[in-house]
Write a structure and sequence with these properties.
Elements lengths: L1 H4 E3 L2 E3 L2 E3 L4 E2 L3 E2 L4 E3 L2 E4 L3 E4 L7 H12 L6 E3 L5 H4 L2 H7 L4 E4 L3 H9 L5 E3 L5 E3 L4 E6 L9 E5 L4 E3 L25 H12 L3 H11 L6 E3 L5 E2 L3 H12 L4 E8 L5 H15 L5 E5 L5 H10 E11 L2 E2 L1 H12 L6 E8 L5 H12 L2 E2 L4 E4 L4 H19 L1
Parallel strand pairs: 8-9, 9-10, 10-11, 15-16, 18-19, 18-20, 20-22, 22-23, 22-24
Antiparallel strand pairs: 1-2, 2-7, 3-6, 4-5, 7-8, 12-13, 13-14, 14-15, 16-17, 20-21
Helix pairs in contact: 6-10, 7-8, 9-13
Bound molecules: MU-OXO-diiron.
């Protein structure tokens, strides 16, 4: 059992997999599930790093006891209080009543508020330290990655970073948890989707955290979601660095709503011309079918964004409006933006998308295209002009 859970030194993986939940945070699809990672350091002094969703407490405790037997856990380090990680704090406290909870001054109000747990605590500030014997833990406050109390814990003995949500991704751990023992390729897209959906608003705090951790000699990244990264550390940090800078590849996302196919024909005309102009990465999403989770992932991935909407009740199509709200919420930066729309008797969608363009501060590319009722030759021409402008901007 112990060999199967060993990360490094005396650090063990004791996380669990959730293949039951459909929507993370009640919003984001989980086609490949999600893991809630916790780590047990069975040193001279025993410490647990974060817990798991309370639904999985029984198998979680079994894993801990399989390693520790009757030894108690002396410290619980709480890097992050979102309930997918803090959910078992009350039950752990019941199991180990003398446990000392380690957190920062933002953490303990949340522990009391969520779980009514009080008792002995170690309130850490940036750079504080906890010696376990072989392993030596240093605490780094990394607020807003992804809540205000978030911090990361670095084991200076073996170079292991317990990163909270940082460097996390969707997807369960099917068998192995170490990147050296799995096919890591299944996680890259789910890492981008996780970042864009969950952490996407907090680009600046992620950048600050990366700067703070930049000098550390990191040999393993233990996130609260997804594999333990050892041989892919450069790639993982690079993904989080690029995404938090809102850097993107030279492709185009076309996201559109369409009730009877006319606005979709505009999208098709734009996509075909983009391809003719040499843009290889064109990703199309019908907002009524693609979940916003995947559209956001692709918007974080690609530099160009073209949005299309029919007019509906004198507004944008509601699903398009909802997507644009989600983009604004995440404060996505640095996109080339074009838009098009349609109407039957009075146009409104194109005007509303113009308001979004101003709010987003995206660089407007090409002329917005507005079509009445059905496509005419001149509408094809306008759509193609928009596509040419986008292709030219991407090439520049
Ligand atoms: Fe996985 Fe912000 O919790």
């Amino acid at each position: 059992m112990k060999d199967k859970t060993l990360v490094k030194g005396k650090i063990h993986y004791v996380g669990v997999n959730d293949r039951n939940k459909h929507l993370f945070e009640g919003m984001w699809p989980l086609p490949y599930g999600v893991s809630y990672n916790s780590y047990l350091i069975a040193d001279d002094i025993v410490a647990l790093i974060d817990t798991v969703d309370a639904c999985y407490f029984e198998p979680y405790l079994h894993k801990i006891k399989s390693i520790l037997g009757d030894r108690p856990v002396q410290y619980l380090v709480v890097n992050h209080m979102e309930p997918d990680h803090s959910g078992s704090i009350r039950l752990i406290k019941q199991e180990y009543p003398d446990i000392v909870i380690v957190g920062n001054k933002q953490t303990f109000g949340m522990i009391e508020g969520y779980y009514g747990v009080t008792g002995e605590r170690y309130v850490v500030s940036d750079g504080d330290f906890l010696d376990l014997g072989h392993h030596r833990l240093r605490f780094y406050l990394t607020p807003m990655v992804h809540w205000p109390e978030t911090m990361m814990t670095f084991d200076e003995a073996d170079g292991v970073l317990f990163a909270g949500d940082g460097f996390g991704c969707f997807g369960t751990l099917d068998g192995g948890f170490l990147d050296t023992r799995i096919n890591a390729d299944r996680y890259w897209d789910e890492m981008v989707r996780y970042y864009s959906n969950i952490v996407g608003k907090y680009g600046n705090p992620v950048q600050k955290a990366l700067a703070k951790l930049g000098g550390l000699d990191i040999k393993a990244i233990c996130s609260t979601h997804g594999p333990v990264w050892t041989e892919n550390i450069g790639r993982v940090v690079g993904i989080y660095d690029r995404l938090s800078r809102y850097e993107a590849e030279p492709g185009v996302v076309i996201a559109y709503g369409s009730m009877y196919g006319h606005t979709e024909q505009m999208a098709e005309a734009i996509a075909a011309e983009l391809s003719a102009q040499g843009v290889r990465d064109v990703v199309m999403h019908n907002v009524s079918k693609s979940h916003a989770s995947y559209i956001l992932r692709d918007i974080f991935k690609y530099r160009g964004l073209i949005v299309g909407s029919p007019t509906y009740c004198n507004q944008m199509y509601p699903e398009v409006a909802s997507l644009l709200d989600k983009i604004l919420l995440r404060e996505v930066k640095g996109r080339f933006f074009g838009y098009f729309g349609s109407f039957t008797w009075a146009g409104a969608a194109v005007k509303r998308m113009g308001e979004f363009a101003e709010k987003s501060k995206f660089e407007l590319v090409g002329d917005p295209v507005e079509m009445k009722q059905a496509m005419c030759p001149v509408d094809y021409e306008h759509c193609e002009n928009l596509a040419r402008a986008m292709a030219a901007r991407l090439k520049a």
